[in-house]
Amino acid sequence: CGTTSSTLAEFKLASIIGNGMVLQREQPLPIWGWDDPDTEVTVTIAGKSASAKADQNGRWLVRLPAMDAGGPFEMKVKGSDTATVKDVLVGEVWFCSGQSNMEWTVRNSNNPEEEISAGMYPEIRHIKIPHVPAAEPQATVNTSGWQATTPDTVANFTAVGYFFGRELHKELGVPIGLIGCNWGG
To answer: Cβ(14)–Cβ(138) under 8 Å?
Structure first.
């Protein structure tokens, strides 16, 4: 589920950075991607900006200042090209890693029809990292992107992650991001 170096030399954001994402509150915010070597890249969100220069392999990383929970925000990334990331929330982000117990979906949990029909939490977002066998670590993966919790999406979320995230959301009153990086053994 990690990333390594890339030799890409085109403007591109990491696959986990996209519309509907949730960023971790009260911590510096890493945003990364690729661009032409030596290109200055600037990331701006909610009046906060940070810049970095792409290295000789085209990799860049900025760390935006910590933010309190909130949103939705729009994030602009400008390098040799420009990208706009919409509907960004800041809250709690949880990495849902493990095997079959973490991959088990809401569709397979107790009372699935009831849980799915009640699954209307637009501030709980989930991204699933797909199963892609590889001989070496990959710099990026193709995902379906971040999905807000609705009756149309929640059935395929990690059940453990979703029920945990739902309780946190109710208790803390902040957006919740769930990164589903699990693979049943």
So the answer is: no
Per-residue burial over 128-163, b = 16 or more CB atoms within 10 Å of its CB, e = otherwise: bbeeeeeeeeebbbebeebbbbeeebbbbbbbbbbe
Q: Are 25 and 91 in contact (CB under 8 A)?
A: yes
Q: Which residues does residue 75 pair with via DSSP β-bridges, in sequence order?
A: 45, 85
Under 8 Å between Cβ of 158 and 126: yes
- Which residue did the predictor score with more confidence, 164 or 100? 164
Residues 64-119 have pLDDT tens digits of 999 999 999 999 999 999 999 999 999 999 999 989 888 899 999 999 999 999 99
Q: Where do runs of H (alpha helix) occur along 27-99?
A: none
- Is 79 within 8 Å of 85 (Cβ atoms)? no
CA pair distance 18, 98, nearest whole angstrom: 24
Q: What gap in Å lies between CA 164 and CA 102, rounded to an integer?
A: 11
Is residue 160 within 8 A of residue 102, CB to CB? The reply is: yes
SS3 for 34?
strand
Q: Does 133 sit behind a cis peptide bond, omega within 30 degrees of 0 on the bond before it?
A: no
Query: What's the predicted TM-score (pTM) here?
Result: 0.90
